[in-house]
Amino acid sequence: MHCEIRGNLVCSLNKMEIKYHKQLAESGKWFELSILEQMGNIGSEVGRAAKWQGKDERNFRGAVERALELFDLTLEDPRWRGMGRWREIATVRMLFCRAVEGDNEYKTSLNDLDKYFLQFAFAARKNI
């Protein structure tokens, strides 16, 4: 199942091939990060996507693809399986795809998601 294609960008609901974060995935370092750190890193890419949306298609596409990779790596983390946390990550990934496509069904924009993820980055920095 895939979301719509907008501007040749597919925001897939299926797992994406790891292209940007291969070393992070293969080394297992991603799976050593806390949920706060993982979500904060996803949020960095979501923020970049929000910044470039409608301004620079190449930078926007890159940020979207990197965010999706980090979402997928986080969803593969066995620590979050069988927990409400996994469902939350999967739901936010779907909302991200919808926001990228401009779908307003859930009334969630990339800027809204950037604010959501910012809280994880703050918490990770404070080591909560």
Structure description:
The chain is mainly alpha-helical and 128 residues long. It has one domain. The protein has 5 helices and 2 strands; from the N terminus they run ββααααα. It has a two-stranded antiparallel sheet. A hairpin with a 2-residue loop joins strand 1 and strand 2. Helix 2 packs antiparallel against helix 3 and helix 2 runs antiparallel to helix 5.
What key phrases describe this protein's structure?
single chain, mainly alpha, two-stranded antiparallel sheet, 5 helices, 7% strand, disordered N terminus
Low-confidence runs (pLDDT<50, min 5 residues)? 1-10
Biggest sheet, open or closed, and with what strands and sense?
2 strands, antiparallel
Task: Let me know the number of strands.
Answer: 2
Percent of residues in helices comes to: 55-70%
Average pLDDT reading = 86
Side by side, the strands of the main sheet go: 1-2
Radius of gyration: 14 Å
Given the C-alpha coordinates, what overall shape results? Answer: globular
Q: What pattern of helices and strands is seen along the backbone? A: EEHHHHH
Number of domains: 1
The secondary structure category is: mainly alpha
Terminal CA distance reads 37 Å
Q: Name the beta content range.
A: 5-15%
| Number of helices in the DSSP assignment | 5
